[in-house]
Task: structure prediction
Amino acid sequence: MRYLCTVLFLALAVTAHADIYKWVDGRGTVNYTEDLGKVPAKYRKKVTVIVDGGPTPAEVTETVVEPVGQEKKLEAGQKDVDKTPAPKQEKTKTVYGGKDEDAWRAEFKEMRSEIKASEAELAARRTRMANPGTMSRGEYLGVQREAKRLEDTLIGLNGKLNALEESAQRAGVPLDVRK
Result:
């Protein structure tokens, strides 16, 4: 009997699991539902499945999209409530090697800031090593090891920056984006 109850409980637990389906409609509105049948047919190929595990977002079951340029006919006494402006057209961004200019800039900026931080830390270690009389031999050797580790890190970061420069050059990224 226990075995049967356990199997029944597990079967119910498995059926309680629900995926959430997310899609973006023609107006750019993000919609969610737990029933794939509620996703309009023309958006089903672009559905993203979110595995259940977090809070369930609000469910949008129906979105009405009216063709542009056609006016709604209002019946007597009815007000036109939907006076939302048309969605703004996004400015197209130039893409180089699968990434836009902003992504390239951010990647170069992050790499250079990591290099700058490592250089500052290395300079601090070298300054500390310049006056060995204020520390014990163990402390001095520890600072020396840290300086060596930072030098190795800098070599690696500069190698990554050079590789990034080369890939940006192959992708045709302009110089002003790389600086």
User: Anything to note?
Assistant: The beta strands are 20-24, 30-33, 48-50, 95-96, 99-100. The CA atoms of residues 22 and 76 lie 38 Å apart.
